[in-house]
Specification:
Layout: H1 11-41, H2 44-62, H3 64-72, H4 76-99, H5 107-131
Helix pairs in contact: 1-2, 1-5, 2-5, 3-4
């Protein structure tokens, strides 16, 4: 006998999508604040460094959604490949920053952009978690 589809919505996927969107909005806002803060310093190289660091962190964190979607479709090989590629790119870029100007004019602004976006993302996850009821177990339809 075939199982009937669940009468309940896929609450886990819906809640994770909302949480990721909220976290991304907070991360974007904090990245804009970091760039604006360095813009007040007045040097275009510092503004570009902050924008580059914030942009890199935003792309990395937004890519987490693709890993989640691939994992939900039970394509774990592709999900792990995407995640490990993201880590590799982040490591290579971090290594290049450390070798070629990490202590220069744009190194500190780039690091500030990355850190600010990461803190904004974390704050967004906390805010989303406190605002929404997140059941640990999904309810199953009673037959």
């Amino acid at each position: 006998m075939l199982d009937e589809p669940s009468r309940y919505a896929d609450t886990t996927s819906t809640l994770l999508s909302r949480m990721l969107r909220t976290a991304l909005l907070w991360a974007l806002g904090s990245g804009i604040l970091a760039v604006a803060g360095w813009a007040l310093a007045g040097h275009p190289v510092q503004v570009a460094g902050a924008a580059g660091g914030a942009g890199l962190a935003l792309v990395f964190l937004a890519g987490g959604r693709s890993v989640q979607v691939l994992a939900r479709t039970r394509n774990l090989g592709a999900a792990m490949t995407v995640f490990l590629t993201q880590l590799l790119v982040l490591g290579v870029v971090g290594g290049l920053i450390a070798q070629h100007g990490g202590a220069g004019r744009w190194g500190m602004p780039a690091a500030t952009g990355v850190l600010t976006v990461a803190l904004g993302w974390t704050a967004g996850v906390v805010v989303a978690g406190r605002r929404r009821n997140q059941p640990i177990y999904e309810r199953r339809a009673q037959e």
